[in-house]
Structure formats: C-alpha cells, structure tokens
Amino acid sequence: MTTAFEIETLKEIQERLCPLETATRDISREHYMTSRIAIPIANQVLDKINALKPQSTVGLALKAAPSAQINRQSACEQITLYVATILDPRFKTTYFKSPEVVAKTLNEVKHLIKTSKSQAISSEDSDPAECGTSDNSSLFAHHSRLVQITLRKSAPLSAEIELPDQLAVYLRVPAEPDVKKNH
Fold it and tell me: Cα separation of 21 and 24, whole Å?
C-alpha cells in the first residue's frame, strides 16, 4: 500500500519534472534546435524549479540537479551559447543574469567580429580556386512581459566596452517581445 509520504514525494517529483516537460515541448515546436534558445530555456527551467519549495530529500535533490548540471558546462560551451543568445533578436540580453556575463559576451562578439573581418580580408587575397564548396503552457508565455521588465530596468551599456557601431545599434533596439517571430 502506498503511504501518504510516498504520495507527497511523487507529487514533488512531478512538480520538478513539469518544467522539463514544458521545455521539451517548446524545443520540439522549433523546426530545428539551435543553440540560441539554450540559455533562455535553461533560465526558464531553473526559475520554475527554484520557485518550488521541496519538502522531501528527493525534492531537494531534484531541485539542485539542474543547477549542478549547468555549472558543469565548460566556460567555452557557455560563452558560445551566450553569444548565440545575444545575437537572436528575440532574446538579446533578456535572459542574462549578470552585467559581467553581458560584458564578457559582448567582448567575445567583438573579438569574433574582428576575427571575421581579418579572415574576410585574407580570403579576398587568396585564389578563389583554392576554396572548397551555419501560449500559457510554454516556458515563453511570459516572454513579452519579461522583455518589458528588462527594458525598464536595463542600464545603458557600459562605456568600458567599446562596441562596433552595428553591434551597439543592434543592442539599443529592444528585444523582440514575440518569441514566435523569426522562426
């Protein structure tokens, strides 16, 4: 016979798995999964899981597991995901948790632009023949509201980070409040 404690534990497990199920559905709606949605999905899942108040040891373990998994990612993997997110007009810096991460990501984008320009210049000099032939059940149901909140509380970009003109203009325009756009 199932005890009341076991039923409560199962309810906690179900509560913790619901955000993961919703994330799976959101990802499945995409025509193809791209890295640009990884940071927003991870932040939404973590926010929903962290908002829950576990009572059992199983619930506490399930609450800690997603954060631990994200922290295991290498810095290189994380910066790549942040760059992909900041370049998506739907998200930009909306899901960034700290100004330090924004600054680090912008510096990486700046570096990539500089590297890209130097590669373009060197490829122009090379012989072309040498070249061979990138709703409510959704986690993003409140995305529009989050964009508005971020817009109200966002500080201007730090003067310490000198950005290329195109990137500065791009970042000054608010993130797209309709998450379904640009699919």
Answer: 5
Domain assignment of residue 132, yes or no: no
Predicted TM-score (pTM) of this structure:
0.65
Residue 181 lies in a domain: no
Taking a C-beta distance cutoff of 8 angstroms, is the pair 58, 9 a contact? yes
DSSP 56-111: SHHHHHHHHHHHHHHHTS-HHHHHHHHHHHHTSTTTTTTT---HHHHHHHHHHHHH
SS3 183: coil
Residue 161 DSSP one-character state = S
Evaluate whether residue 13 is within a structural domain: yes
* DSSP helix/strand/coil, 133: coil
Sequence-distant (≥ 6) Cβ neighbours of residue 68 within 8 angstroms: none
In a domain, 130, yes or no: no
* Domain count along the chain: 1
Residue pLDDT, tens place only, 125-170: 554 444 333 345 566 666 777 777 776 666 555 555 777 877 888 8
Residues of the chain where predicted confidence (pLDDT) is lower than 50: 127-135, 183
How many whole angstroms separate alpha carbon 150 and alpha carbon 148? 5
The domain in which residue 147 lies consists of 4-120+139-172
Nearest to 177 by CA among 81, 91, 112, 117: 91
